[in-house]
Amino acid sequence: MLEVSGLTVEYAATTKAGGESPVRAVDDVSFDVAAGEFVAIVGESGCGKSTLLFAVAQLLSPPAAITAGSVTFRGQDLVAMTDRRLAAIRWEKLSVVMQSAMNALNPVMSVGAQFADALRAHGMSSRKAIAARSAEVLRLVGIDAVHLKSFPHQLSGGMRQRAMIAMALLFTPDLVIMDEPTSALDVVAQRSLMTQIKELQREIGFAVIFVTHDMSLVSHYSDRLMVMYAGQVAEAGPTRRIFDNPLHPYSRGLLEAFPGIRGAKVPLQGIPGAPPDLSVIPNGCRFAPRCPAKMPECETTAPALLDRDGVDVRCLLYAPASAKTVPADNGPGEKPRERAQ
Amino acid sequence: MTEPHSVTELLRADHLTRHFSIGGTLARGTLHAVDDVSFSIGEREIVALAGESGSGKSTVARLLARVYKPTSGTVAFEGRPLSAFRSRRDALRYSGQVPMVFQDPFSSLNPVFRVSHGVLRALKLHRPGLSADERRAEAARVFDVVGLGAGMLGRYPHELSGGQRQRVGFAQALATKPRLILADEPVSMLDTSIRIGLLNLMAKLRDEEGVSILYITHDIAGARYVADRLIVMYAGQVAESGPIEDVLAAPRHPYTQLLLSAVPDPKAPPPSLEALAAASGERGEPPKVIDPKPGCRFMPRCPVSIDMCGQVTPELKVLGPGEAACHVAQTGAEVKAFS
Prior knowledge:
The complex is a heterodimer. Chain A is of the alpha/beta class. Chain A has a domain at about 105-170. Chain A contains ten helices and twelve strands. Chain A is globular. Residues about 320-340 of chain A have low confidence and may be disordered. By secondary structure, chain B is an alpha/beta fold. Chain B has a domain at about 10-100 and about 210-265 and about 270-330: P-loop containing nucleotide triphosphate hydrolases (Rossmann fold). Helix content of chain B is about 30%, strand content about 20%. In chain B, strand 1 (about 10-20) and strand 2 form a beta hairpin. In chain B, helix 4 (about 130-145) packs across helix 5. The two termini of chain B are about 30 Å apart. Classes of the chains: A alpha/beta, B alpha/beta.
């Protein structure tokens, strides 16, 4: 249904000398989303997740611009589309839930008035129909319809996030894009919201692209997972496969970055360092400076995204050229040897 | 309250209560942000204060930091009640010994000053005996302790990542030779991959610098990783407290059980959507505690409540290695509300 191919986003920037040196925030990213699928995109802040989302929804504003690639949604290329035609698709077929409901809802308008605005913009004019549809979507997310009259500050954080999701569902879209919608919530509210998204998805059948930096959050909810690092796809594949056997050292680091509540307490390190400054991209692998499994050639050779039994991974450990350092028959169930360090 | 393990008591809160009046002239009400909360923090101890947003965790921290005055109840630091402070000297000494680290590293540093500014000012104010050179040396030392290195002193906040800024927050707190750091959700705005580094830093401050930390969080797994003791708050009251491993191994309060059951475990096989829906069928919200009536505040969400819960507010009583405020648990019955 959605096909992103070779998408590249650059932020125009000038060097101190006055020359142009665009910063490539999203670099040649391809993925697709089938109808009804739940795709999670994870990575640290600054790795291009949000820029990617904005690019998919055509919400980028200067200095950011798509410089290459296409976003094909239901057979039409969104990148080449005019604003007028985009306006008809946005919200009706493709809606976005922003990160912070606190800032995304208008504080001086009641929830109902904001719903009505969106409905009217897409051609619904009967007051009765607007009221009925607004009440319906609000009930869908488990909020009583009396809250249509409420202002955002009268709702709790969890309710505000749910109201945002209700808003995204006003027109039964095919695709809902969510940018960390649960990051402001505690675990109990988080679980209930995630479960609700899944239930609604099953009921209504929309697909979800879900961006988060917390890998544990999506482990039980997403069908496919895409790990991004420094603007590129580091690893992508079925969620379960990646959780059971993460191939890329970065995915492994993300997975091992959080402590458990059961089992033995083990000292953790997280991933030391920070994602690279994208205006000075290192030669070779972008993760190399922080990688526990770094090899000499990682400094010089940029790894390509390779398919390994259905999981795409960008790491020299799995490149044929590095067969000398890693046994070639390293099966999918086996962890690379550099693991223990 | 009993001390679960033999540590010297550093700070003690007794029946701490803070109410706020809210509403206009027509609908006045009293918000019970913190109601009758008692706990203690020992020397060299990390105490995690957990609970959902609105449960009163941050109000407790602000009461301890003397941002708010308690409506009733007392806080005593090293045996001396805070209400007995009379001079500016007392207040200054206390705020140097009990500094705060804030949640948002993006708004808690002044963007127009180098990051050394806050540390140097704190040193000038709280340790006036130091010369300018000694202040610089001390600033370099605390930056080293928090893992930034003295080279970072000349940077501006915008040049640092979120994790580094939060380390600056800890360096500022450390500069005044603190006994107890009040850390209000110090890692919740950071990426999960960075959080663990900050948690390791907190453990290091306890082990090497001998500082106690009140670690306010809603991340139970992170709390388990660093804390010695856990206090779970619900709707302004303490629901359960005790040594953290004991509480997590056998939570007695239904709310603690709910909190634990909601922590995602990526290593477990994914439960079916039906199981998830059943587990989170509970879509209750934490109550806004405005003019509360007697009774257990968790009762509307509690699957095991008994008649008494609607009438009598449960008190925190010793149960096993910890304490819990639950009528059902206090009858000796095993509570299994959420698993």
